Amino acid sequence: MRGETSALYVWYTYRWLIERYPYALKSGCGIEKLQLETARRINMALATCQALQPC
Length: 55
Description:
- The protein contains 4 helices and no strands.
- By secondary structure, the chain is an all-alpha fold.
- The chain is elongated, with a radius of gyration of 16 Å.
- The chain starts with a helix and ends with a helix.
- The relative contact order is 0.10.
């Protein structure tokens, strides 16, 4: 039971990152403003935005 609780805690700590990712794409990269219509273009925009993000 304790190991399961620890694992759940670790996954819960990722929640902040998971919630911040779409926010960063919307506010920092303006991904919604691009209004891309094909999956290929969306993937290219995401790859570019991720490459430009500071570490």
